[in-house]
Amino acid sequence: MPVFVRILAALAVTLIVPAEAFAASGEEIYRLRCALCHDSGATQAPRVSQPNDWRQRVEKGRAALLRSALEGVRDTAMLPRAGFADLPDNDVAAAVDYMLGTLKLSIPETGKETLTTQPLRPTANVDDATLVASVTEALRTRVLPRAKVEGARVGGITVEARDGRIALRGMVDSAQVIRAAEDTTRGVVGVVAVENRLIAADLFEHD
Fold first, then answer.
1. Is residue 196 part of a domain?
2. 6-15, 32-41, 73-82, 151-160: range with lowest mean pLDDT
3. Which residues of 101-117 are buried (b: 16+ CB within 10 A; e: fewer)?
4. How many distinct structural domains can be found in the chain?
5. Domain shared by 140 and 189, yes or no
6. How many CB atoms lie within 10 A of CB 13?
7. What CATH number is attached to the domain comprising 29?
8. Of 21, 143, 147, 180, which is most buried with the most CB atoms under 10 A?
9. What is the 3-state secondary structure (H, E, C) of 154-179?
10. How many helices and strands, by DSSP H and E, does the chain display?
11. Residue 36: pLDDT band with limits 50, 70, 90
12. Final residue of a domain: which of 101, 136, 166?
């Protein structure tokens, strides 16, 4: 068979493979989005390696745990979708199922907790002062846990808000911190847009 015919055949097979075949697994999603806190227990997150961290939580049932992952948990560092607002429901569910699967615990589909809690995302606008405080706290707990908070500044990041639009300015250690700061900010209730003007200090490092 000529080479170009084999290439066309391979392309045809690729085109007819369902998109789901290329979807990330629950473990991959967990490693990329959840492991930072749930591997180490940072920000008091339950650890996947410690079933005892989960025994009371799993009594609520899988549905309630999934809802917590989707909507966040009030008064904790757990933001909606772990702070990644663009994460699809199916990916969140896959990550939750992977985490629960590592525990070797019996987990009911529904449990003791009723599923009547309202979503955390409000329909009303959040005033800018409250939004700055919420974003600053989210950045401190999720991105810069050792950083000092001074008003609207956490570590090297200054947070500004106008009509629900957040501007992040300043210098941080790396591009990874920049991405984490933006993703975390997008997950805060009331944020409608993010202007990321952060600069990575490692860009200025030289051998």
1. yes
2. 6-15
3. eebeeebeeebebeeee
4. 2
5. yes
6. 9
7. 1.10.760.10
8. 143
9. ECCEEEEEECCEEEEEEEECCHHHHH
10. 8, 5
11. confident
12. 101
Tokens standing for residue 136: 């600053």
User: Rounded mean pLDDT of the chain?
Assistant: 79
Q: What pairing do the DSSP bridges indicate for beta strands 165-172 and 193-200?
A: parallel
Provide the edge-to-edge strand list for the sheet that holds 149-150: 149-150, 153-154, 157-162, 165-172, 193-200
Region 118-122 average pLDDT: 42
57: containing domain: 18-101
Does this model's pTM top 0.85? My answer is no
Q: What is the spatial distance between Cα 11 and Cα 175, in angstroms, rounded to a whole number?
A: 35
Structure tokens at 140: 């401190």
Task: Confirm whether 170 is domain-assigned.
Answer: yes
- pLDDT-derived band at 169 (thresholds 50, 70, 90) equals very high
pLDDT (average), residues 128-133: 92
